[in-house]
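Q: I have 309 residues here and want to know how they pack in 3D. Can you give me a structure?
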Amino acid sequence: MLHLRVIAPEDLRDDVLRVLQRHVGVAHLVIHPGAALDPEGDEIAADVARESANDVVKQLKDLDVQHRGAITLTALDTVLSTRAHRAEDEAEGDPADALVWDELITRTREESTLSVTFMTFLTLACLLAAIGAVTDSMVTVVGAMVLGPEFGPLAALSVALVQRRGDLARRATIALLIGFPVAMGITALLTLAGRAVGWLSFDTIGDIHDVDFIFQVGPVSFVVALLAGAAGMLSLMSSKSAALVGVFISVTTVPAAGFTAVAGILGHWDVAAQSAAQLAVNLVGVVLAGVLVLVLRPRGNVIPRSAQT
């Protein structure tokens, strides 16, 4: 379940209570009149079944609560309550299939911000991928795939396309369009340094076998990107972090970006072009899969029984 906390001005108190009281998926309704100081108003709390969250939040937004007060949602790991269990049973749909849009939008917005941390992780991941490629080390490449933060902006872009959120789309696009070139540029500079001191040469990547999947782009690459993108979006919707790690290992974005820079600096322009194509195929595949999952998701959880009567 989710814990809902509402701060609302006194004149909206009755309206907010009516919204919460008429939903079968709401339990443990509590009100503290005049408890909120900034903004001033009442604090109203309740536990809400995930299946009912979208409809509850939408009706609260229709009251303009988000502008005149506040709406917060917190996931509850353990709830020992017969009333809460009954609310979940009576709400339409299954909690595992319930998509709470505001929760997903907030999560993807946070993970798609172009920040120093994002840039650092992406650069380190590209460098690790480059090292793994030139040393033909699968372990190092997999480590780079896990480290890469690029799935956040890709998921945010999928959500933005489905929800038509221009602000979220701009945030995600900026992170990708600035993040990858900067990370690849730094990787290229360090590759030049390695070549200058004799650590790297044209023959360095001439005989690699274990990580040649990085630049072997084809239909299978697109299929893998689609499957990984679908799994990643499902993991975000259901908060399955373990599944998300598996997605990172499946997508050849960071390795392709790092190897594009290395191959180009060392003069393997055909390999660099193939790696760049691999990067593009994976980026498009992940975003497309995310959009399809959101569009084709189960919709039985949107309309609670209370809205049907």
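Q: Anything worth noting?
A: The CA atoms of residues 30 and 307 lie 22 Å apart. The first helix runs from residue 13 to 21.
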